[in-house]
Amino acid sequence: MTQPRKHLSIGVKISACLFCLGIPEERHTEVLQAFKDRMSASQRKRDILDILLVQWGIDSGDVQWDHSPPLALRDTDWQGASKIYYPDELDPQYLVPMSKADHQHKTSGAAQGAGKSNVANSDIHKIAKVNRLLASGEKSPAAGKKLPASRWPKGRKIQSRGFK
């Protein structure tokens, strides 16, 4: 049962950009107020977002928002019919603006237009590995490792020299 993702508001996107630029959360309102003071009334939050994306080095028409860590790897809980993620799926500290090509490479490991690929460090590969481990009943990746075999045959007894 897949649920539609929540809408990313402009405010969440702006906060995510501020986090990416290294501005701590307690200074976000101060920085936003400085932007508003310098902008005319006709300029909107969208313009602030465009400026921040340019600072991050991304064209606003080429941006995609990456959840880091991926939603499928986060702890979840159900409240009624809705799925709750920990950390929240709209938490700006865990959203990263990326160009479409970079986002596709991080997600699937494929270069844009190169078809499907599954690089070991891609999100899809990590999610599939966790699903395989959960399906096999392992609690952690280390739980499936076997101990090294003993160099002594099973059942071998050390012979006693006896007492004289």
In short:
The protein has 164 residues and is of the alpha+beta class. The protein is built from five helices and four strands, in the order αααββββαα.
Report on the architecture of this protein:
By secondary structure, the chain is an alpha+beta fold. The radius of gyration is 25 Å and the shape is elongated. The model has no long low-confidence stretch (mean pLDDT 80). Helix 1 runs parallel beside helix 3. A hairpin with a 2-residue loop joins strand 2 and strand 3. The protein has one domain. It contains five helices and four strands, in the order αααββββαα.
Secondary structure layout plus pairing:
Elements lengths: L9 H11 L7 H11 L6 H12 L6 E5 L7 E5 L2 E5 L8 E5 H9 L14 H13 L29
Antiparallel strand pairs: 1-4, 2-3
Helix pairs in contact: 1-3
The CA-CA distance between the termini, in Å, is 77 Å
Poorly predicted segments: none
Element-by-element helix/strand order: HHHEEEEHH
Helix content: 25-40%
Our estimate of the beta-strand percent is: 5-15%
| Gyration radius, in Å | 25 Å
Number of domains: 1
Q: In total, how many beta strands? A: 4
Strand line-up in the sheet with most strands? 1-4
Q: Name the shape in a single word.
A: elongated
Put simply, the count of helices is: 5
Output the keywords:
164 residues, alpha+beta, two-stranded antiparallel sheet, 4 strands, elongated
